[in-house]
Amino acid sequence: MPIVYKILNLTPIILYNPTNLPTPAGLTINLTINLNNAMVKNYSKTYSVNGVNVPLANVLFAYWTGTQWDPLYGWIESFNSSAATVWVRLDRQILPYNTLTIFMLFVNGTTLGTTSWGVNSYYTQNLSLDNIGYVMQGGVLYQVYIDANGSLYNSGGGKSGGVGKTLSQSCNNLWNKGKSNYIMVGLTYSGLGGFLYNLPLYGVSRAFTSSNGTCVFAYKNATESGSQLYYYYSPTNPTLTFINNQTGTYGGLFLPYGEPQLATPANEPVLARGNKSSSLVSGYDVLFNYEQGFIGGNPWPYGLSSAQVNLTWLVKGLGWIQLSSTNVNLSVTTDDGTMVLLGTSPGGGNFTNWLGAYTRSNAILPIWIEDYPNDPSYTGPVTFEAPLGSLINKAGDYRVVIEYFQDIGSETYLAVFVPNPSMAANLMWYAPVFPPGGSYPYAFAPLAPGLLLGPPAPVQGWIVG
Asked: Are residues 46 and 150 in the same domain?
């Protein structure tokens, strides 16, 4: 028997599509609700769960069909004393240069825990009130970028024809001088992680420049699992060391390769192959599984497999991890490099600044690895594993960014997965629905001035009130 609510008040929110493309069915729009707005203060209710007062507990978003209310799925991602970030899933398209009117309803009872309205379980520690799975799609959004200039490894005018090559020689000199307690596992272009984090999804190109490089070593006595190339790393138990080296200036112009796509999780083996052996790692909730060609997981856009020998290319993925328990280890198999950034509290920014800020304090598995030609024991990928519980201590929905870097060569590996099936049961991946062309609609609340925070204009890949 459906619950019948009495509407105490309502206000229309007008969404305008300023593009020549229809919005996709299921588009997830983001709204920032002003909790100090007069209508909100007069008609919204809070609901106490485990000592936390959740705002907007009696709200529903709905579409009026002309004869009845058609409830929409909505979810409170984050809130504080003055504002709440909410997401609403539209169940119909907005045609080009047209509007769609939805309504924010204030009703006479709590709506939290229904399929139509919920709150991030980070706040309540009650998964029954968290309906993110009804609002978002499963998986993570990702986009591929290519370097229009070719390869960072060979560009930049280094001493031997390329800064990347110069850096590998510098790291080799360090590795050969009194590093008996370490094994060389790679090198990085410092700043590349921050650059990739700030790349916007869809159609904006960015130039990357940097003047620093870093050598990466691992302790020889690091935890092993069947292979010398399997190292365990976490922020609280580091087995890696970074040595900085000045290597000159270099850059690249990265262009988006198609529109954002959805990587959906699957259970499949991950191939971790070095120059001496190959091993299959059991994978669960495998988001990416790319090994040289198109094997497993969600395939890359066609063309990269043949072009990767001569081009630098990047991948940026984003979405949410929902944890019902923090007893989850996340693994990556990588060559050339992968970084996973996890927001340690709810909320964040737009698709260019998903976590709200780029910070290494939120990073797990922060390794950018290059093929290391001067070390005969290392020419292949490495697998790293990190416990999410080293960063967070309670269940909830956390924003996540996954970055991948490939610089020349045929050795290409990217796998992101949970290594244990019992742990996989505690993790779900979610992502917003991204519109073709990257442009979200305008949003106005004409009868409730000040209800929606932010300028009344669209920002690429983001909706503001």
From this structure: no
Read off the pLDDT of residues 235-250 as tens digits, 9 standing for 90 and up: 444 556 666 665 666 7
Pair 76, 197 in one domain:
no
Domain assignment present for 457: no
- Residue 354 and residue 378 in one domain: yes
On whether both 234 and 122 belong to a single domain, the answer is no
- Residue 450 within a domain: no
- In terms of domains, do 290 and 326 share one? yes
Q: Are 134 and 115 contacting, i.e. CB atoms less than 8 angstroms apart? A: yes
User: Is 454 a domain residue?
Assistant: no
pLDDT given at position 130: 97
Q: Within a 13 Å sphere around the CA of 291, how many CA atoms are in the beta-carbon half?
A: 20
348 and 400 share a domain? Answer: yes
Is the domain of 35 the same as that of 149? no
pLDDT tens per residue, range 279-309? 777 789 999 888 764 444 445 555 566 566 6
pTM of the model: 0.90
Q: SS3 for the chain, per residue?
A: CCCCCCEEEEEEEEEECCCCCCCCCCCEEEEEEECCCHHHHHHCCCEEECCEEECCCCEEEEEECCCCEEECEEEEEEECCCEEEEEEECCCCCCCCCEEEEEEEEECCCCCCECCEEECHHHHCCHHHCCHHHHCEECEEEEEEEECCCCCCCCCCCCCCCHHHHHHHHHHHHHCCCCCCEEEEEEEECCHHHHHHCCCCCCCCEEEEEEEEEEEEEECCCCCCCCCCEEECCCCCCCEEEEEEEEEEEEEEEEEEEEEEEECCECCEEEEECCCCEEEEECEEEEEEEECECCCCCCCCCCHHHHCCCCEEEEEEEEEEEECCCCCEEEEEEEEEEEEEECCCCCCCCCCCCCCCCCHHHEEEEEEECCCCCCCCCCCCEEEEEEHHHCCCCCEEEEEEEEEEEECCCCCEEEEEECCHHHHCCEEEEECCCCHHHCCCEEECCCCCCCECCCCCCECCECCC
Q: What is the CATH number of the domain that holds 82?
A: 2.60.40
Residues 306 and 250 in one domain: yes
> How many domains in the chain?
2
